[in-house]
Amino acid sequence: MTESPRVAVGGVEVSLDHLIDGERVAAERIFECRSPLDWDRKLADVARGDAATAERAVGAAVDGFATWSGLPVGERAAALRRLADLIEARNDDIALVETLDMGFLHRSMRERLVARGALNFRFYADMAEAHAEPRWPARGTTHTVQRMPAGTAVVITPWNAPFMLATWKVAPALAAGNSVVLKPAEWSPLSASVLADLTVEAGLPAGAFNLVQGIGSEVGAALTADPRVRRISFTGSPETARRIGAAAAVNIVPFTAELGGKGPLIVFADCDLDAAARQAAAQYEDSGQVCLAGTRLLVEASILDDFLEALRVRTEAHVLGDSRDDSTTIAPLAHPDHLARVEGFVERARAAGDTIVWGGRRRPESLHYELTLIEPASNDSEIVQREVFGPVLTIQAFNTEAEAVDLANSTRYGLSAIVYAGSADRTERVGRAVRAGIVWANTFLVRDLAAPFGGCGLSGIGREGGDHALDFHSDLKTLIHADDRATDY
Ligand code: NAD
Fold first, then answer.
1. Using an 8 Å Cβ cutoff, are 94 and 114 in contact?
2. How far apart are CA 255 and CA 252, in angstroms?
3. Sign of dihedral through CA atoms 75, 130, 172, 64?
4. pLDDT digit string (tens) for 296-333?
5. What distance in angstroms lies between residue 319's CA and the mean position of ligand 1's atoms?
6. For residue 191, is pLDDT > 80?
7. 52 alpha carbon – ligand 1 mean position (Å)
8. Which residue among 237, 256, 290 is best mutated to probe the pocket of ligand 1, counting the most ligand atoms within 8 A of its Cβ?
9. What is the whole-number distance in angstroms between the Cα of residue 126 and the centre of ligand 1?
10. Which of 212, 240, 242 has most ligand 1 atoms within 8 Å of CB, for mutation?
């Protein structure tokens, strides 16, 4: 690989260039990257790709596809396992880069999320290798279903959880035999660059994995409009999904869209109240920049006061601080523009007559917004209906199970839901009635990678996870062979 200038980010050497066809490629234009931990100090000048960069990256990926998809699945899986090993070996470096770049708590990155990135590659290496083609006899023939690698996949990721989400989406694409062009978000582009280095070190052939840095409306739009691209895997906002969907429609390209959420956390009177309050306070973590968060607290009226008190205690125990400090439990928001957006939501709620129960202002000395609880004047309030993506929860009371389900299903989103109740009958009933891609009962965030993952309504199109992602990244072919008893109709 050509040596490209690297910048020390927290002491970790990071390339700020694209990776195309196994080589680092510099750009004429750059964009600035700043740390939410110290906004006044520039972290790096990152390559700002344009239409020509996209053209070149897709070209490299099309060539890379021929090599990568031609390898036996065992060789591809071995390369992905080497990549997983390298991620584990660089755990602390990746954790630090992500913390400085995006603001994520260093402890979570170090202890959990980088390892999850490695697991994504290991899991899909195992899954692709273990895949047994479905085969069955029918009317004198044998039917066999083959997964053909689809071609070049463009993967576009958002600024929250950049490393975890990039690996979650890149791993199945590569495991299915596709080549990849990854475009991370411009607010947190750096951990993807470390990943790009590791794909080279792991011995992936040139062009199998390519990284393009830049602004979504520029290089992102060019990538998704390229007719040579055969799959688009996107995580981000509904607004961008509409644009990408339009580009995909022009080229008749399948795309998945994992979008926002406005999940309910439903608390029934017979639940373990302390556990439910702890879980509710945990929804503030990562400053609420979590698509799966249960941000609408729906609480049975008979326990509302007790629940509120328990939640207040848990909320006050949170520590807003520097993400590098292990005693901090709440990181700053990722960007001043996002802080202003969160602030705007709360100010409009205040003006519209919603009640600010606690919080409701920014911290002067950092990019933190106070942990906020709002009692809306109505279920139609903007603060209930739109994703804030910040440390802002709403609280509403219900009297019956039917009312709880109606409220849970009353937004256009449908990504996730959390139910706290004392009986399995109730969690089963409510879980089945709620419209969401995933429902947790008396727990949160635990999810086997084989499970389908995605949203209903405004929360997205398609499912990733397990076989769903491998099927998405493949063209399925049915082979029908006549056997001795074949008939010709
Ligand atoms: P965004 O849609 O603004 O940006 C996401 C990515 O799309 C970025 O890389 C951006 O550069 C790129 N992009 C922007 N315009 C583009 C265009 N015209 N063509 C191609 N690419 C373009 O979203 P964001 O603000 O970065 O992310 C936050 C959103 O992501 C929230 O709504 C959050 O809920 C959602 N999210 C969803 C999940 C999930 O799994 N469902 C996970 C994390 C985040």
1. yes
2. 9
3. positive
4. 999 999 999 999 999 999 999 999 999 999 999 999 99
5. 28
6. yes
7. 22
8. 237
9. 29
10. 240
Whether the model pTM is above 0.85: yes
Closest CA to 277 of 309, 253, 254: 309
The partner residues of 235 in beta bridges, in order of sequence, read 258
* Dist CA 279 CA 265 (whole Å): 9
| 392, two tokens | 């802002």
**Joined tokens for residue 148:** 């053909």
The structure tokens listed for 169 are: 């989406």
- Averaged pLDDT of the chain: 96
218 lines ligand 1 (CB under 6 A): no
Which uninterrupted H or E stretch holds 467?
A: helix 466-472
78-121 residue pLDDT tens: 999 999 999 999 999 999 999 999 999 999 999 999 999 999 99
Do residues 334 and 114 lie in contact, with contact meaning Cβ atoms separated by under 8 Å? Answer: no
Residues 461, 256: contact at Cβ < 8 Å?
Answer: yes
Q: Which residue's entry shows tokens 């739109």? A: 386
Q: Which atom of ligand 1 is nearest to the CA of 338?
A: 25
Tracing tokens 């306070």 back to the chain, one arrives at 281
| Predicted local confidence at residue 123, as pLDDT | 98
Residue nearest to atom 42 of ligand 1 (CA): 291
Does ligand 1 come within 6 angstroms of the Cβ of 81? no
